[in-house]
Amino acid sequence: MARKARKKSKSGIYHIMMRGINRQSIFEEEEDYKRFIETIQKYKEKSGYEVYGYCLMGNHVHILMKIGKEPLEQVMRRIGGSYVYWYNRKYDRIGNLFQDRFKSEPVEDDAYLLTVHRYIHQNPIKAGLVNSLEEYKWSSYYEYVNEGKLVNTDFTLNIFNNDREEAMERFIQYNNESNDDICLDIEKRHRISEAEARTIIKEVCRVKVPFDLQNIDKEIRNVYLKELKEKYRLSIRQIERLTGINRGIVLKA
Question: Which of 9, 42, 153, 206 has the fewest CB atoms below 10 angstroms from its CB?
Answer without folding.
Answer: 206
